[in-house]
Automatic annotation (TrEMBL), chain A:
InterPro entries: BPD_transp_1_N (IPR045621), MetI-like (IPR000515), MetI-like_sf (IPR035906). It is a multi-pass membrane protein. The keyword Metal-binding does not apply. The keyword Transmembrane helix applies. The chain crosses the membrane at residues 12-31, 100-121, 133-156, 176-198, 242-269, 289-314. It is found in: Cell membrane. Residues 94-311 form the ABC transmembrane type-1 domain. Belongs to the binding-protein-dependent transport system permease family. This is ABC transporter permease. Keywords: Cell membrane, Membrane, Transmembrane, Transmembrane helix, Transport. PROSITE patterns: ABC_TM1.
Automatic annotation (TrEMBL), chain B:
It comes from the Bacteria. It holds the Pfam family ABC_tran. It comes from Marivita lacus. Belongs to the ABC transporter superfamily. Signal peptide: none annotated. SMART domains: AAA. The keyword Chloroplast does not apply. InterPro entries: AAA+_ATPase, ABC_transp_ATP-bind, ABC_transporter-like_ATP-bd, ABC_transporter-like_CS, Oligopep_ABC_C, P-loop_NTPase. GO terms for molecular function: ATP binding. Residues 16-264 form the ABC transporter domain. It is a peripheral membrane protein. It is found in: Cell inner membrane. CDD domains: ABC_NikE_OppD_transporters (cd03257). This is ABC transporter ATP-binding protein.
TrEMBL record, chain D:
Its main location: membrane. Keywords: Cell membrane, Membrane, Transmembrane, Transmembrane helix, Transport. This is Peptide ABC transporter permease. It is found in: Cell membrane. It comes from Marivita lacus. Belongs to the binding-protein-dependent transport system permease family. It comes from the Bacteria.
Automatic annotation (TrEMBL), chain E:
SUPFAM superfamilies: P-loop containing nucleoside triphosphate hydrolases. InterPro entries: AAA+_ATPase (IPR003593), ABC_Ni/Peptide_Import (IPR050388), ABC_transporter-like_ATP-bd (IPR003439), ABC_transporter-like_CS (IPR017871), Oligopep_ABC_C (IPR013563), P-loop_NTPase (IPR027417). This is ABC transporter ATP-binding protein. It is a peripheral membrane protein. GO terms for molecular function: ATP binding. It comes from Marivita lacus. It comes from the Bacteria. Belongs to the ABC transporter superfamily. CDD domains: ABC_NikE_OppD_transporters. It is found in: Cell inner membrane.
């Protein structure tokens, strides 16, 4: 376990450093923030002053060294636009995205796993084929389009659910979350569904493939030969085996979900990191962009790590090997 | 009889070194060791020209590793391999490369040992053309001859491996090896994957080829019956070490090492009537941490204190050599 | 009574002096009042100052109200103004300071607590306008004795200033405005509550929630779904539907923003111009005229802008200071034939190739308008491409002079013609603060002279004449192609009313319930 | 020998088929690159060659497995609709009533007309309506299909090529090189594609070529990892040992033996990947960083019409959306069938 | 009464490539305590026969004919639920690959307890007790501790013992063992064989031992049935069949086994290869490879004939000429 931790740490450090370099220069390539930030009435002199205030008048490599120096001390700079430390800013937006992604994940598992297992079980029947065809549509639909359609249907036409925004929040562990209040949950349903649709299809397919595969395995046949009921075979023998790959993939997908929240949050005006990122790109708020990417990578690292741990807990083959080392 | 192939103390270790991270972890107190499998441990024996030497032993005892070292597919950790008197231990030298071509290997799995995307004609002909044994114009004939040699119709040249049965594929594998005019064949479980009736066909083929082409074999198998049938001499391995080497008849009539005895005892045999199966106790130990002394001692009914302590030397009496303390001054 | 408003953009901070940008200024008007107010047409109105007048060439006197208290109960006086002007240049990490407006102040002289004299180095006709741009904060509330401040443009010595963060978390959001800042939550919304002790007419709303709904569709969806009561900038295409809906009301008014295409007057060869062997055809006035009259403004207004825009003949709509009266300088009429003829005359019978740079998320239908112009130019034989990108990229490229023609917009913050002329058409001169946004590098010394004179003329009538003259000079030179003035719409549920504003601000205290 | 074969049965072609399919491949590649280079449209002939080439390739891929492929109605529907959409895309020029990319042919006076309207002068009917530029939505869809398809196919092919080289090389070389390459791959993969593409496009600016590059960058690592996996398991197979034992040089083993066995599993993946790429491209265009605005892809058409959804002018966004859904879904469905057909594990 | 009586069993696979008659008219019967060796080469239908008895044939396969009488009950007439209550209870099965038959993610305890509780309403503790007892019986040291382990913590031989223990849990009347030792090493195989021999003797469980290794059958089985292409071509008491084979295929098979003192000689080889099960010849399936073949064989498939006490044969030209042969 220690080795595993250390190795992960080393990799993470590599990724972070690479990320810092790539991101800094990547962001640096995109325009001059002062052009956006400053009031159009400002005189060229004021523009120059502002440039100097943010240190843009210095050569790139100096800026980079400064950036690295600060970054190593955990300071990713202050948002040009908001004047707050970028990290703090993002952290204040993060709970909204995380809870959205999490609910999306829960939705996708709740929808995907049962459908997938059933489809795998009935792979050659019309039920299985219907589910598969459905799942294809599920992941062929572009995210933004789905969101808009959902708003049209559920908010505008039926008026069942609120269209946009966040709703009531409750403070939990210092984070303000919607997921714990009924009102807040209402606001989350549509965006979370939008986010979940693609993943649900993915999970369905994974679960189906896994189930099909598992059903061909000798241990399933052996379980049948033991006289177990089909339900038990599916729920205990098959499910436990397929959950391992599903969890692995989903864990990784949680990351991409956070990333794809960019689109969903824009559509639903959900005040999360993704929207902050888009806004920061439009305003060229470099520290926020950089901090966003860095924090996303850190989240990724944490997620990957957690996934590995869960994986270890689920898969005894890995678990025991882990104990041995 | 001069030795065609000679192995002198050949060893092969698979070491898993600790990388930087793991070393760091160990320093931090993690229980980490460099692991080392002595897949083959100072193996020495010779194969004379025209001879068939059988190599037997249980799964994981290092048979394939040994075979692959001889074939030059795996580097040797220690010791030397000589072929016709020439040191071919280092596969990179030009001399060795040329000699190496004389040694060919026939693999176990007739499916995975053939490139599924090549036609039989190419599988067999490619190396021959590359090494200038034939040219592009005449390669078709060359392939046809080889097919004929291994008892296949020339029509097979245009097929893909998956269009053939296991026995036919194995013949293609043999033809491929023969294409570079080898003198020495290593057959690594070459018939294990085949059905009994097909096994017989392939065994017969091997014997025919031996006669016609004057081939020498190192015949690796865990099936004692097959080895008894085909080999002139038998090498028995246990957990990386050679425990007994003897002419086939001598070995089957009077096995000297307790392991060989147990092995022969336990093979189910036809014609023995209803058998009461007797067993050696215990399991094959993990090669990762083999027992000290004689590797076989935990399972050996005759083991004494010395067996636990000392690695037995191989004692040769006539053409029969055994590595057992029983034959080297007792187990006390 | 609660009011929920859907905003198209979000303020970056509640600090009134942190960032000189529309959304922030709009928010601050609710909480922090300025000395001078502006009405719907951007005419100056008394606010914290009851009146003002020039005193000699370089001084303005402001007479302040004496019945105003800050929301913490402390009285408002001239020292608070001094304190505020002192704070402005030193707001840390500000992306865009208000020094643009206070930079011209050389001294502040407090005659008595409610009389203030503002000094400038040169005649400064726009001084009252400048005092409408920033909100006043309390010196006392920050533990500063206003009377003791030594004002100097370089800095007022070591004073205690509130941190930007303190405004955002509400701890020091103390102003004189009709509302108090209840909470400022980024991304989620801002809550305002009525200031019970407001000196003027009390705001009609107990509580106002300002929600950032930055994408159009969701914004209008939220209104239709009843989640908000009023939205700014409803998408043009939805106006028809909203208008047809009895439960909705739409208001609209012309804004101070003109959408224009600026041409490269300088570079040779000019970027992205093809088929001219390196020459810059835009230097030829005939070509500029051709390009100008090839555009069918009315078609754009009607088709692309859904009628919610007004064709432009200069850079500020009629009725605003320095603009010509209706009909005096009408939009150039569309004449494709003449345009073709002019091109031939100028030596480009086959036309040439040009690319219009445009942002695609900055102005209403910006990229679509550019496309429409491209269509029209294409019809007179000029092969036109569109290079549309997100505003940030666009502005940076534009500022690096990467376009030979670009579409952009200009909102006259001061509400008078000097603003666009000075920024867009005056010869670039950083020292004088001229031509800051003149990225076509237009230069017309005669016009410059008229403009500079206007900028120093305190007398309104004279200044207005000068500005009109300068504007006509530029238009006659086809220096820039004005397309249209944006008209700003607001949509709300029936039962509310709002008077459209040229400055495009949505000010909750001006939203009224109606029967 | 077990009843289930562990190696995928190779694409089994007769000699003539092999030559034909190779020629078809070359033709497809050539015509595609012509299509992409965007300089005018390639002549009709070469587009016909492209279509025929594609069909031949598909037939070659499926040779002998038609029965299996076409089991169930969805396979027919998907194949037919894919074929139809591809034909529409290839012959967009001939089929569409208007060239929506030619500004001279557009007239904003025809803007935002509902389906079935006619032009000002009545010379043309807009069967699916127009957008605000007066662009015929039907023509826009046909051209947009072509852009979406060729961009994603080109990006997928190029990414696959890079991925194959990196993957095979690292699997073969092993050791430090492998570690470094795989770290880079991990790094790339740990970064969600949409973000990378977003940043890249923000930095590059718009343009067909740029979006192709961005899409390549976000995808190559995926292939590299997949290929490396395959290559690793293939190198463990005995036919590689046999080739080495026969004294063949490394390059010959890599190109002659390893490579051909690593690519087939990619065929299925890449089909699905083409669909994903189309969606990604449309998302980027939707976010305003994709193709040039005057040459709309499906995503951009949707984005442009998106604002009009609520106002009842649904056709601007809805029809391109349906087209996008159709093309993505049919590619995915065909990919699905392909997988089931070519996957030996499901063979019975 | 015999424990199992299979009559004319037919199991076909309806594949894309055609109907595979994997089992085509197989008959045998088995008494309590008897061991039947079912031998034949790969693909001859041994496993499918086994699965058919438990009604566990995978799609697209179906039992299309014949009867399987288990203690007087025709299994074909049972409902799925009734069949399930027999499986693992009265009839148990052991598979070839010990690596694959145990679910890798469940503890041995779970896998054993569920097998008991699927058939008996007993407490978890009671079921566990039984598991421990049975594990001890198949020679697993300190079984109580090992219950908590996962399959991969066992060696191959141990895993196969666990599988056998699971089969024995409910004291079945019949065990179908499908090549349970093929994947194991010689020394381990003989341990298992010894174990099984003893168990069969003690419990009186009837055993069907499927294998392709004639030598194993010789040592273990009371009677043997030789399968070729989905049919039993010869059956009878083990010693009789192996010493005096009647069918040319059995003879060939015996002759092709190397190494009982026939060193260096050519092995008898059966020419050709195993037939494609989807396209069997009209007549005797073995005809194309048979050295005694004639027109009759090609025209018509031979039926089973009794050629002696308990011996059946499916050949027109048996090697041992007997009275009454057709
Ligand atoms: N590449 C390798 N890395 C580490 N250990 C290896 C490697 N190859 C083989 N070994 C180990 O070396 C030992 C001998 O393996 P080898 O394959 O030679 O056995 P074998 O006698 O051929 O067995 P089998 O009969 O199963 O083929 C085994 O314990 C195996 O785990
Ligand atoms: N799922 C299936 N689909 C199609 N055919 C099958 C299937 N399972 C088995 N068969 C066919 O049924 C025949 C008998 O198979 P079976 O598994 O019984 O052979 P076996 O005698 O057990 O062989 P082995 O020794 O290899 O286990 C084979 O020819 C096989 O091809
Ligand atoms: Mg081996
Ligand atoms: Mg079987």
């Amino acid at each position: 376990m220690l080795v595993f931790l250390l190795r992960r740490l080393a990799q993470s450090v590599f990724v972070l450093i690479a990320m810092m370099i790539v991101v800094f220069f990547g962001v640096y390539m995109i325009g001059n923030p002062v052009d956006i930030l400053i009031s159009p009435d400002a005189t060229p002199l004021e523009v120059e002053e502002t440039m100097a205030r943010f240190g843009f008048d210095q050569p790139v490599h100096i800026q980079f060294l400064k950036f690295i120096g600060n970054a190593l001390q955990g300071d990713l700079g202050r948002s040009f636009v908001h004047g707050e430390p970028a990290v703090q800013l993002i952290l204040s937006y993060m709970p909204a995205t995380l809870e959205l992604a999490l609910l999306g994940l829960i939705f996708s598992v709740m929808i995907g796993v049962p459908l997938g297992v059933y489809a795998g079980y009935k792979a050659d029947r019309w039920q299985g084929r219907a589910i598969m065809t459905g799942s294809i549509f599920g992941f062929s639909l572009p995210n933004f389009w789905v969101g808009m359609l959902l708003i049209l249907i559920f908010a505008v036409e039926l008026r069942w659910l609120p269209s946009t925004g966040r709703g009531e929040t409750v403070e939990v562990l210092g984070m303000r979350l919607s997921i714990f209040s009924a009102d807040g949950l209402q606001y989350m349903i549509l965006p979370a569904l939008t986010l979940a649709l693609y993943k649900a299809s993915l999970v369905t397919r994974l679960a189906r493939a896994g189930t099909q595969e598992a059903l061909m395995q000798d241990y399933v046949k052996f379980a049948r030969a033991k006289g177990l009921s089909e339900t038990r075979i599916l729920v205990v023998h098959v499910l436990k085996n397929i959950m391992i790959p599903i969890i692995t993939v989903l864990g990784l997908e949680l990351g991409s979900m956070i990333a794809f929240a960019v689109v969903t949050e824009t559509v639903f005006a959900w005040p999360g990191m993704g929207k902050l990122l888009i806004d920061s790109i439009t305003t060229l708020d470099r520290p926020v962009i950089v901090a966003y990417l860095m924090l996303t990578v850190i989240i990724f690292i944490i997620i990957n790590f957690t996934v590995d741990v869960i994986y270890t807990l689920l898969d005894p083959r890995v678990r025991v090997r882990g104990e041995a080392t | 009889m001069t030795a065609m192939l000679e192995l002198n103390g050949v060893s092969r270790r698979f070491e898993k070194k600790l990388d930087g991270v793991e070393r760091l972890a160990r320093r931090l107190g993690a229980d980490l060791r460099e692991t080392c499998v002595n897949a083959v441990d100072t193996a020495s024996f010779t194969v004379a020209r025209g001879e068939v030497v059988g190599l037997v032993g249980e799964s994981g005892c290092g048979k394939s590793t040994l075979g692959r070292m001889v074939a030059g597919l795996l580097p040797v950790s220690d010791g030397e391999i000589r072929f016709e008197g020439i040191d071919i231990t280092d596969a990179r030298s030009a001399r060795a490369r040329e000699k190496r071509l004389r040694i060919q290997m026939i693999f176990q799995d007739p499916m995975s040992s053939l490139n599924p995307r090549m036609k039989v004609a190419d599988i067999i002909g490619e190396a021959a053309v590359y090494h200038g044994l034939t040219n592009r114009q005449s390669v078709a004939d060359y392939v046809d001859q080889l097919l004929e040699k291994v008892g296949l119709d020339r029509a097979f040249a245009q097929r893909y491996p998956h269009q053939m049965s296991g026995g036919q594929r194995q013949r293609i594998g043999i033809a491929r090896a023969l294409a570079v005019k080898p003198e020495f064949l290593i057959c690594d479980e070459s018939i294990a994957a085949l059905d009994v009736s097909i096994q017989a066909q392939v065994i017969n083929l091997f014997q025919d080829l031996r006669r016609d082409l004057d081939l020498t074999y190192l015949f690796i198998s865990h099936d004692l019956g097959v080895v008894e049938h085909i080999a002139d001499r038998v090498v028995v391995m246990y957990l990386g070490r050679i425990v007994e080497v003897a002419p086939t008849e001598a070995l089957f009539d009077g096995p000297r090492h307790p392991y060989t005895q147990a092995l022969l005892d336990q093979v189910p045999r036809l014609g023995a009537g209803r058998q009461v199966f007797r067993t050696v106790k215990g399991e094959i130990p993990s090669p990762l941490n083999p027992p000290p002394g004689c590797h076989f001692h935990p399972r050996c009914p005759m083991a004494g204190p010395r067996c636990r302590r000392d690695v037995p030397r191989r004692i040769t009496e006539g053409d029969h050599s055994t590595a057992c303390h029983l034959h080297d001054g007792g187990t006390e | 009574q609660d009011l929920r408003i859907g905003f198209a953009s979000e303020p970056s901070s509640a600090d009134p002096h942190f960032h000189n940008v529309g959304p922030n200024n709009q928010l601050r008007r609710n909480v922090f009042e300025s000395l001078v107010g502006t009405d719907e047409a951007q005419q100056l109105t008394p606010l914290l100052a009851e009146s003002w007048e020039p005193v000699g060439d370089t001084r303005w006197q402001f007479n302040l109200r004496d019945d105003v208290t800050f929301s913490d109960g402390s009285p408002f006086d001239a020292y608070d103004v001094v304190y505020t002007v002192c704070r402005i240049p030193g707001v840390p990490d500000s992306p865009s300071l208000f020094t643009t407006y206070t930079g011209g102040i050389t001294d502040l002289e407090v005659i008595d607590p409610h009389t203030l004299i503002v000094h400038s180095a040169e005649p400064y006709p726009l001084m009252p306008t400048e005092f409408s741009t920033f909100g006043i904060i309390s010196a006392r509330a920050n533990g500063v004795d206003g009377a003791a401040i030594e004002f100097s443009p370089e800095g007022c010595g070591d004073l205690n200033y509130p941190a930007t963060q303190a405004f955002n978390d509400g701890s020091i959001a103390i102003g004189t405005g009709p509302f108090l800042l209840e909470s400022f939550r980024r991304g989620e919304g801002i809550e305002l509550v009525r200031n019970p002790d407001y000196w003027g007419e009390a705001a009609p709303w107990e509580k106002v929630t300002m929600l950032p709904l930055t994408s159009e569709g969701p914004r209008v969806a939220a209104l239709i779904a009843g989640d908000v009561d009023l939205i700014e900038n409803p998408p043009l295409q939805d106006l028809e539907r909203l208008r047809a809906d009895d439960t909705m009301r739409v208001v609209q008014g012309i804004s101070n923003r003109v959408i224009y295409i600026h041409l490269d007057h300088e570079q040779e060869p000019s970027p992205m111009i093809t088929g001219t062997d390196g020459a810059n055809p835009l230097k030829d006035i005939r070509v500029r005229e051709a390009l100008t009259i090839a555009v069918n403004r009315d078609a754009i207004v009607e088709r692309i802008m859904g009628g919610v825009a007004v064709s432009a003949g200069e850079l500020l709509p009629p009725g605003m200071f320095g603009a010509h009266d209706e009909g005096d300088l009408p939009p150039r009429s569309f004449d494709a034939e003449r345009a073709t003829a002019l091109l031939t005359e100028a030596g480009y019978p086959e036309g040439f190739g040009i690319t219009i740079g445009t942002p695609n998320d900055r102005y209403i239908n910006d990229a679509q308008v550019a496309q429409a112009v491209a269509q029209m130019w294409a019809r007179i034989g000029i092969e036109t491409e569109i290079d549309a990108s997100t505003a940030s990229t666009f502005f940076s490229r534009r500022n690096a002079f990467e376009f030979s023609a670009y579409l952009a917009g200009w909102g006259a913050g001061t509400g008078e013609m000097s603003s666009p002329l000075r920024a867009l058409l005056a010869t670039r001169n950083p020292d004088l603060g001229l031509g800051g946004t003149n990225r076509g590098q237009y230069s017309n010394p005669e016009m410059d002279a008229v403009l500079v004179e206007a900028l120093r003329t305190v007398d309104d009538t004279a200044r207005q004449e000068l500005l009109r003259k300068a504007s006509r000079m530029a238009m006659d030179d086809y220096a820039i192609i004005p397309l249209h003035y944006e008209v700003t719409p607001w949509a709300m549920r029936a039962g509310l009313d709002y008077t459209p504003r040229a400055d495009q601000y949505t000010l909750p205290y001006l939203i009224r319930p109606v029967e | 020998m077990s009843a289930v074969e562990t190696t995928p049965p190779p694409v089994d072609l007769g000699k003539r088929w092999r030559i034909t399919s190779r020629m078809a491949g070359v033709a497809v590649a050539a015509s595609l690159s012509m299509l992409l280079s965007g300089v005018g449209l390639p002549p009709l002939v070469s587009r016909i060659i492209l279509l025929v080439g594609l069909i031949v390739l598909a037939a070659a891929l499926l040779k002998g497995k038609y029965r299996k492929f076409f089991s169930g109605p969805s396979a027919y529907v998907a194949t037919a609709s894919l074929l139809l959409l591809v034909v529409l895309a290839i012959f967009a020029t001939e089929l569409s009533p208007q060239n929506p990319y030619d500004l001279r042919q557009l007239d904003i006076m025809d803007g935002r007309l509902p389906p079935g309207s006619t032009t000002f002068d009545g010379s043309m009917t807009f069967h699916l309506g127009t957008d605000e530029q007066g662009r015929d939505i039907l023509s826009g869809i046909l051209y947009g299909l072509r852009v979406s398809l060729s961009v994603s196919i080109a990006a997928t092919l190029a990414a696959m090529a890079i991925g194959v080289v990196v993957g095979i090389y690292s699997a073969w070389a092993g050791g430090r090189i492998e570690t470094i390459l795989m770290r880079i791959v991990d790094f790339q993969l740990s970064f969600p594609s949409i973000l990378v593409a977003l940043m890249l496009m923000a930095a590059f600016g718009r343009g067909l070529d740029k979006i192709v590059i961005a899409l390549i960058i976000v995808q190559w690592a995926y292939y590299a990892r997949t290929v490396r996996g395959t290559a690793l398991s293939e190198t463990r197979k005995e036919y590689i040992d046999a080739a080495r034992g026969l004294g063949l040089p490394d390059w010959r083993i890599v190109f002659g033996h390893l490579l051909p066995n690593c690519i087939p599993p990619l065929i299925v993946i890449s089909t699905v990947q083409v669909a994903n790429t189309i969606v990604l491209e449309s998302s980027l265009s939707f976010l305003g960083v994709g193709v040039p605005i005057t040459q709309p892809s499906l995503g951009l058409l949707i984005a442009n019409g998106y604002g009009y959804m609520l106002s009842g002018q649904y056709w601007m966004s809805m029809y391109p959306g349906v087209a996008l859904l159709a093309i993505v879904a049919s590619i995915n469905m065909v990919g699905d069938r392909l997988r089931d057909t070519l996957n030996p594990r499901l063979t019975r | 009464m015999s424990v199992l009586d299979v009559r004319d069993l037919q199991t076909h696979f309806f594949t894309d490539a055609g109907v595979v008659k994997a089992v085509d008219g197989v008959s045998f019967s088995l008494d309590a305590g008897e061991v039947l060796g079912l031998v034949g080469e790969s693909g001859s239908g041994k496993s499918v026969t086994g699965f058919s008895i438990l009604r566990l044939v995978d799609a697209p396969g179906r039992v299309v004919g014949g009867q399987i009488n288990f203690k007087g009950q025709d299994l074909a007439t049972l409902s799925n639920r009734e069949m399930r209550s027999l499986r693992g209870n009265r009839i148990a099965m052991i598979f070839q690959d010990p690596m694959m038959t145990l679910n890798p993610v469940l503890r041995i305890e779970t896998q054993m307890v569920e097998a008991v509780r699927a058939h008996h309403r007993v407490s978890h503790a009671a079921a566990k007790d039984r598991a421990i007892r049975v594990l001890a019986r198949v020679g697993i040291p300190s079984p109580a501790d090992r219950l908590a382990a996962y399959p991969h913590q066992f060696s191959g031989g141990m895993r196969q013992r666990v599988a056998i223990a699971i089969a024995l849990l409910n004291g079945p009347d019949l065990i179908v063992a499908d090549e349970p030792t093929t994947a194991l090493d010689v020394t381990i195989q003989s341990q298992i064989l010894a174990e099984v021999q003893e168990l069969a003797r003690e419990t009186g469980t009837a055993l069907i031992w499927i294998t392709h290794d004639l030598a194993v059958v010789a040592g273990l089985a009371d009677k043997v049935s030789v399968m070729y292409a989905g049919r039993i071509v010869e059956s009878g008491p083990t010693d009789d069949v192996l010493t005096a084979p009647g069918h040319p295929y059995t003879e060939g098979l015996l002759g092709s086994i190397p190494g009982h003192g026939r060193r260096g000689e050519r092995l008898t080889q059966i020419p050709g290869m195993a037939p494609n099960m989807a396209r069997l010849p009209v007549g005797c399936a073995f005809a194309p490879r048979c050295h005694r073949v004639d027109e009759t064989c090609r025209a018509k498939a031979p039926a089973i004939t009794d050629i002696g006490p308990k011996r059946g044969l499916r050949c027109f030209h048996p090697i041992v000429e007997t009275e009454g042969a057709a």
